[in-house]
Structures are given as structure tokens and as C-alpha cells.
TrEMBL record:
Pfam families membership: NUDIX
Protein's UniProt keywords contain Kinase: no
Protein name: Nudix hydrolase
Every Nudix hydrolase domain range: 30-196
Family: Belongs to the Nudix hydrolase family.
Domain of life: Bacteria
GO molecular function per UniProt: coenzyme A diphosphatase activity; metal ion binding
Record has Cytoplasm as a keyword: no
InterPro entries for the chain: CoAse, Nudix_hydrolase, NUDIX_hydrolase-like_dom_sf, NUDIX_hydrolase_CS, NUDIX_hydrolase_dom
UniProt cofactor(s): Mg(2+); Mn(2+)
Record key words, sorted: Hydrolase, Magnesium, Manganese, Metal-binding
Amino acid sequence: MTIAYDDALRERIRTHLAGHDRRVTTDPTKRHAAVAVVLVDSELGEDRVDPAPVEDWIGGRPVLEAGLDGRMVDVSGGAAFLMCRRATRLTSHSAQWALPGGRVDPGETVEEAALRELDEELGVRLPESTVLGLLDDYPTRSGYVITPVVIWGGGRLELSPSPDEVVAAYRVGLHQLQREDSPRFVAIPESPRPVVQIPLGNDLIHAPTGAVLLQVRRLCLEGRPDPVYDLEQPVFAWK
């Protein structure tokens, strides 16, 4: 069942965020970054919003589990969020799934940084009045503290992904976060904390993005304040 993109959803999410005792991480050894959780409308079957040939960046990928070939298919419909596949030419976390975002520049607020990165990566310019609130800070193994900024897009939005940063962009229905097989937790020998996996399409989204999306489900949609900062990233994301 898809989720209706309407005023009732916007106000429910705004209320849940306003009433949340947000976890703030202060760590001078880590750089500050912001990601944009942009809530938009979508129609069934309009997952992809760019012309990038999938085989150019996913062809030949090993299939680690049955049905998981890395393709983001059959995920749109109703209220959705914007998801990107990072460009393969990037020096860090290339070709990984991510929310629009990046470093907070000196003098910027996290809200300003998230909106700027949204414009730079997907060509969407929105005012600060569209911000609904903030999720918990998530400290990463790669040296960042990420602040997720929840933004109401106000419709479908027309996207123009920057080829320098984004190889593909998708509208992913919020209902996909409530799949019966989601979330998944995996134990690894390198850490006592469980690795979180969010199944989307034919792939698994790991932390930090996976942790942010899990809190979108728990807090924004369900009103649950469960923390996600203690969920681990897979080892390949530690660098």
C-alpha cells in the first residue's frame, strides 16, 4: 500500500520531529555533514528520473544473494523520498546509494547545507521554509557526523541530476521502508554492534543511509523515538 502525499502526512511528520528529543553528537575529530531527506510525490512505475544507462554502472556486478542485483526497480508510488547512486568517479564512497548531501561549509547551518547540496546534486532549489525538522546525528566510521534534514518537496519536483556527482536518481516510495523484510540486522566480527540493512528494490541499503532511512520509518512515519546511532556500518563503508 502506498502512502498518500498530502497535508496530513506533512503535519504528522512535522509533529513527530518537533516532539523528538534529538540526539546531537559533538565530536571535534569528525567533520560535519548534512543530508537531505526530500519528501516528494510519485506515481507507480516512475522510479527512475534520469536517462543514465543502468548497464554503464551496474553491469557485471556480482549477485551476492538471490534477487539482489543492485537495481532499484518497482519502488515508486505515493509519498516518496529522493535517492541517488553516487557517481563512480568520486574519490570516496563511489557508486554507493545515498541521500543528497555533503559537508557543512563554514558559517552554514545544517539546513542551509542540505538545501545547497540538493540544488547542486539534483538541481532542486527549495526555501528553508520547506524544512520539517531534523533527525538524530549519525557519526560515521569515515570521519563525519551526519545530520539528516527532512524537507517537504511540495510535489513531484523536476530533477536535473549533476553527472559529476550523481549517476542515477530515483523516487522511492515511503511505503518501501515498511516492507515485511525490513530492517535486517547482520553480525560482523569487526564490531559488537549490528549492521543494519534496509531492503529497497533489488538491493540492500547500509548505514549511514540505511540508519537514516530506518529513523525516517520509525520516527517520521510511526512516531517511535528508537535510536539508530548505535547501528553499525559494513566494513566497506569504514573508509
